[in-house]
Write a sequence for this structure.
């Protein structure tokens, strides 16, 4: 058996094993299912201010790591700003403006999309995906949600004269720089390293450390950290997409930065230095934004209109709403 295969003895993080029920799936007044999860709010000094479950347990942040990865790139010569830097932090929807921007990053480094090594896919956005398939196009790396990150990784390699073929390898100078930045910004030593869905390395850190990192990014007033935060705030549609809740959240709360991730992770930083991180234990995304909205309500962040977008998780019967996913115990 491969050393990467799970076994019955594979340890389970406390962020999962000790996770309380944080959401109910309600159908016509009946609780049909429950979701367990962990949430944490860190203070500006990095200490834990609010904890639901055990936030000391490590998680893979998945795409919530992208602003941290982009910070490593900026520190190592990535020259983009604004919408292109926001795309470096993105899990974009594959809309045409996302695709055009990813190509612009590559062109600025003298590259084409053939250099991309992220996993080919269809666009994430429903309309963009339907149109792409209707035109008979196959899955491609340029429309996959991580193409902005990978284009930026390649541009960073060009700026430093680093090898382009091996940029995803753990030993590559780029990935060494990313790992060092993860350690610095989170204040934690990664407890595991794996291959993310797009093919790049991903590092497991405590959920509280992820929150702390986002608080530091959002509070930055100068340097590369401030560049990352400004790009996300100024161009949230490049971080997510036209119809994404993360885009609405960033637009709707002054000074906030955020990044959603696969397997039901969500990380937020506030201008005052507080950080927030959420992980739904079963990895189901339908409860992720609902739980985050409940945490934001508890700490008094966000208007009703903005939080209502995060709370939109209808349960359907015959195509019509007959219930909802609702947060509990927060």
């Amino acid at each position: 058996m491969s050393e990467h295969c799970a076994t019955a003895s594979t340890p389970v993080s406390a962020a999962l094993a000790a996770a309380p029920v944080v959401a109910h799936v309600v159908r016509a007044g009946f609780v049909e299912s429950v979701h367990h999860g962990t949430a944490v709010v860190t203070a500006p000094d990095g200490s834990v201010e609010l904890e639901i479950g055990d936030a000391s347990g490590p998680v893979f942040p998945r795409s919530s790591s992208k602003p941290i990865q982009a910070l490593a790139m900026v520190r190592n010569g990535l020259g983009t700003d604004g919408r292109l830097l926001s795309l470096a932090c993105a899990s974009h929807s594959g809309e045409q403006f996302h695709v055009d921007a990813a190509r612009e990053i590559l062109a600025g480094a003298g590259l084409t999309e053939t250099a991309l090594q992220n996993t080919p896919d269809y666009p994430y956005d429903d309309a963009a995906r339907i149109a792409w398939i209707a035109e008979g196009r196959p899955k491609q790396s340029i429309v996959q949600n991580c193409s902005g990150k990978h284009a930026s990784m390649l541009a960073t390699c060009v700026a430093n004269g680093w090898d382009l073929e091996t940029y995803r390898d753990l030993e590559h100078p780029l990935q060494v720089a990313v790992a060092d930045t993860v350690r610095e910004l989170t204040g934690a030593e990664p407890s595991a390293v794996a291959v993310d869905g797009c093919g790049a390395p991903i590092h497991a850190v405590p959920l509280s450390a992820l929150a702390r990192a986002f608080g530091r990014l959002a509070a930055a007033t100068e340097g590369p950290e401030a560049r990352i935060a400004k790009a996300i705030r100024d161009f949230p549609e490049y971080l997510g997409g036209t119809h994404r809740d993360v885009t609405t959240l960033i637009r709707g709360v002054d000074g906030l930065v955020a990044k959603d991730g696969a397997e039901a992770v969500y990380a937020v930083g506030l201008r005052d230095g507080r950080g927030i991180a959420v992980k739904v234990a079963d990895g189901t995304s339908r409860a992720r934004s609902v739980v985050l909205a409940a945490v934001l309500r508890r700490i008094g962040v966000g208007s009703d209109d903005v939080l209502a977008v995060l709370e939109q998780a209808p349960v359907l019967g015959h195509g019509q709403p007959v219930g909802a996913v609702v947060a509990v115990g927060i």
